[in-house]
Amino acid sequence: MRSLVRFALFAVAALGLGVLLVVGRLFPGTAVGEFAAVLDASYAASALRLSVPIAFAALGGIFAERSGVINIGLEGLLIVSAFTGVAVAHWLTGDGPVAVGAGVILLLLLALLLVIAGAALGLLGDDRSEIAVRGGGGLLATAVLAGLTVVLAGPTLAATWLAFYAAVLVSTGFALLFAVVTIEYRADQVIAGLAVWLIALGAAPFASNVIWGAVNSPGVDTLGTWTTPVLSELPVVGSVLFDAEPIVYFLLLATPLSWYTLAHTSFGYWVRASGENPKALDTAGVDVRRVRYAAVLLSGVFSGIGGAGLSLGRVGSFVGSGSTMIDGRGWIGITAMLFGNYNPFGAFGASLLFASLDALQFRLQQLDYAVPDSLMQTVPYVTVILVLALVGRTRTPDAAGEHYEADED
Amino acid sequence: MSPDWLPKPIEGVIDRLVDASAGERLLVSVAALVTAILLGGVVTLVAGVFAACESPAVGVFCYNPLAVYRYLFLAPLSDPFILQETLKNSALLLLTGLAVAVSFRAGLFNIGTQGQLVLGALAAALVAVRVGPAAPAGPVGGVLIAVTAMLAGSIVGGLYAAIPGALKAYADANEVITTIMLNFIASDVAFFLVSAYFQKPGSGSVETRDVPAAARFGPEIALVLAVALVLATTYLLWGTAFGYDLRTAGIQPEAADYAGVDAKRMIVTSMTLSGAIGGLGGAVWVLMSVGRWVNGVPALGFDGITVSVLASNNPLGVLFAGPLFGSMQAGSLSIDFQLGVPRQLVGVIRGLVILLVAMPEFFRTLGVRWNMGEGQ
């Protein structure tokens, strides 16, 4: 029944847009025509771009919640990474040329962190020799990442990319904090998630104020766009899919990858089992805690990409006033996750739906319709509520929100 | 546990206070608060490394945490302006903390107190401006306007909270998300309404006309009102059958249904009650603090979450947590002015408090390790 409603909603939305487009093209002089003229290729491109933070939050939420940990702190993770990205980029580039020394320090720090993380992973395992292997793996990963970045992006852009990595790491660090609190100390997941959000909501403007003396940051370079030659010349599709920001490509890659991981790998199987029947997973000899840690950390990685993708991808600054530049996108991401029924493709579709509404309200503002901006801004939020009212609570994983204690402890 | 001659509701309250689990929760709250303050000090110290300053407090550290906390907690004693702000904040946080506590007690996460407060405040301001000219002059008229405005604020706040309540009860929509969305919608809608219809003539910012001066009151009256409401709510929740139903319906809907209580209707009722208190908070903010509705309502609703969580959602605990955060909030102005430490620091501490209160297990582990308590 719920899935029927969900499908019907998708169909109606898609059909409605299609009809609008066709009617609008046929009668260009009318109001509908004017409206349809707004929905062009650049509209599609901006909808896709706006879906980035929402969809990445949703993908992260899927991994965490399917493993049994409800992470409603996603909004906070987006805020933290959006801020960190800009702050580090600002620190690296300053006002003048790239600060090479700062870049090297940051790179060494990243390497060190990855080595420690790898070694820690090895420590958790039974085989102590894994420590060295994984620690070395972390070092190698950093070297490869740094090399690739400099080769692909050039030295100037490399600084912005380095800032992007740092943002993802900090977001993952926050996710780790959340994981320790909920998995180790069995905190109420909803309250702890709320706390992560509120900490970020206070910390990002605080830090921004410390560094720049204002809650909003000055501008920094963005990650730019990646243009595929020839293909980008294609009509409509070319400008949308082959002349986009790197993070958009990441999203187009991450969605099927997440789906494949969840559905067809043993890690995905563990994650699902950990959320549905942790006892059985434990009996099968898999450490439920480690699976949940990994899933929550993944939600931090994804949210980090989404948040830094927003601030460094297009905007090029951090806005900390009011509810910050994230402005509820993490919460909308949670709704997209529910609407998409914990399926990465479904969540991506739902994110695109919300983002296209957001893009629409931007467009209509520019068209100077009679509807005031402040009311247009409510459209995505109202949609979220309508969607939740119609779809309601989806079938959450059985063990979501519950703590798991292995018996032998 | 308590003598027989005490009236039943009071007996219940006393039982709760001496209850072992209540005592443990109090201990957790105090420990969490202290830890959050310590962590906040570390944050301040580290942040000071990145700040630019002429004369560092110590070495590379621009901010001195001890000075920060001295201002944060003691400024009300030395600065009459900060004291006044503390009293105002305390009254407001008693109300928003109570609003959040009522919903949490009923097993509902009403994160929407902020939105309910924003719209309640707008309703109160508009009603006060409208009723103003019709009311008789003098204090009688003032009381009349104030009461009508507060009623309007509660009604609007209550109705606005009834929306997520109904969505939760009848459509199973997660109230955490709907209430947060309604927060965003409330501020956009209020901005639109004021800028389009109720704009104060000649004003550069988005605000309503001033409410009649006679209807305004000081923090003392607001505090009395808030404390009375806290006590009344405590009685309602633990002294009446209605309160019992309210508490069970959200936490154990099956049990409530079995006992003949319409759990769904009870969910809507508790959300409405919570929203009405939040809306009243908005009305008090208008009548006591600013004298009109202004865009950029402070985050009193979010602070209410901290107050309630710190009080383990116990209205009587709100009586302590509210003024505590009220003074910290006021003190944050003084750390900004006097020490140049951004006032958002209090926001960080707010989050840390919630995080730490949420993990009693952490303190239990510590307690066992240090041989405190029973050490199961």
How would you describe this structure to a colleague?
The complex is a heterodimer of chains A (409) and B (376). Chain A is mainly alpha-helical. Chain A has one domain. Chain A has 16 helices and 2 strands. Chain A has helices at residues 2-26, 31-38, 41-66, 74-93, 100-124, 130-184, 189-212, 237-241, 246-264, 266-276, 278-283, 288-315, 329-339, 344-367, 373-376, 379-391, and strands at 226-227, 243-244. A two-stranded antiparallel sheet of chain A has the order 1-2. The two termini of chain A are 42 Å apart. The model of chain A has no long low-confidence stretch (mean pLDDT 83). Chain B is mostly helical. Chain B is 75% helix and 0% strand. Chain B contains 15 helices and no strands. Chain B is globular, with a radius of gyration of 22 Å. Chains A and B meet through helix 7, helix 13 and helix 16 of A and helix 2, helix 7, helix 12, helix 14 and helix 15 of B. Chain A: Its main location: membrane. Chain A: It is found in: Cell membrane.
Can you summarize this structure?
Helices cover 74% and strands 1% of the residues of chain A.
Overall geometry of chain A comes to globular
Could you give the order of strands across the largest sheet of chain A?
Answer: 1-2
| Overall 3D shape of chain B | globular
- Please state the average pLDDT score of chain A: 83
SSE string of chain B: HHHHHHHHHHHHHHH
Helix amount of chain B, in percent? over 70%
Structural class of chain B: mainly alpha
The overall strand count of chain B is 0
- SS strand fraction of chain B: under 5%
Largest sheet of chain B: none
**Care to count the β-strands of chain A?**
2
Protein name (chain B): ABC transporter permease
Keywords (chain B): Cell membrane, Membrane, Transmembrane, Transmembrane helix
Organism (chain B): Halolamina litorea
Membrane topology (chain B): Multi-pass membrane protein
